[in-house]
Every structure is written in structure tokens, then in C-alpha cells.
Amino acid sequence: MAIPTVTLGGRTWHLRFDMNAIAELEGALRLTIKEIGSRLMRGKMGTREARALVWAGILHENEDLGIRQVGDWLNEAGFLKDVASRDALLVKVFDSLIAAFPEQPKTDGSDPN
Questions:
Q1: CA distances to 70, 104, 106, 108 from 112, in Å
Q2: What's the number of domains the chain is made of?
Q3: Which helix or strand (DSSP H or E) is residue 29 part of?
């Protein structure tokens, strides 16, 4: 699978949710990744969560990047006004986040030994 990208601040960024990104995301939102996932699944995500998700996903490319800078770039990109662009960006972020947690193989509960 290709690594999703977003263009913000005149630059293309690769979205990646590794251990560091998830830890930063949890810290920024003061929620566990399980709580974040639950909120996303219930559609209870606001601009604070969206900004933090984008920031955490691109942070690996610039560890000095501030969350407010990402918010400014999202604002410049019309994130609050252009619903189609916002939704397209969020789909990339969600897909990238989901890819960080591969689905576990299903078992029938029997002991393989």
C-alpha cells in the first residue's frame, strides 16, 4: 500500500502513524488510542481532534513542527469551508491510522497445539 500524502504549507507530507505518532496524538488529546478510535467510530470528532490527527501523522518528517502551525495550514487550505477537501484529507488520515493497526487473524478459539 502506498503511503498517503497531504499537501499543507506548500509542501507534501507523508502520513505515518507509528509508535511515536500515536504517543504524541494521545498526549495532545489526553485520550488513549482506544478512546480516540471509539470517538472516530461514533463520529464524535471535532476540529481539535482533526488537527491533532494530521499533526501527529506528519510529525515524523519534522519533529519541531507545532500543532498550531498545522492548524494554520489547515485553515489556509480551507479546511473549515471546503467540505469535500476536508473529507478527502480526513479519509487519508483515517486510512493511514487504520493501516497502523493491521487486522489480527481470526481464530476459531481452538488451541493450535
A1: 48, 16, 13, 10
A2: 1
A3: helix 19-29
| pTM summary value | 0.86
pLDDT tens-digit profile of 17-44? 999 999 999 999 999 999 998 998 898 8
d(CA 101, CA 15): 14
Q: Is residue 20 part of a domain?
A: yes
- Domain presence at residue 93: yes
3-state secondary structure of 11: strand
Cell of 50: 482533526
> Does an H or E element contain 6, and which?
strand 5-8
Q: What is the pLDDT of residues 7-16, one digit of tens each?
A: 999 999 999 9
Q: How many Cα atoms within 13 Å fall on the side-chain side of residue 41?
A: 7
3-state secondary structure of 42: coil
> Measured between alpha carbons, how far is 87 from 76 in angstroms, rounded to an integer?
16
Measured from the Cβ of residue 77, the count of other Cβ atoms closer than 10 Å reads 17
Per the CB < 8 A criterion, the answer to whether 20 and 112 are in contact is no
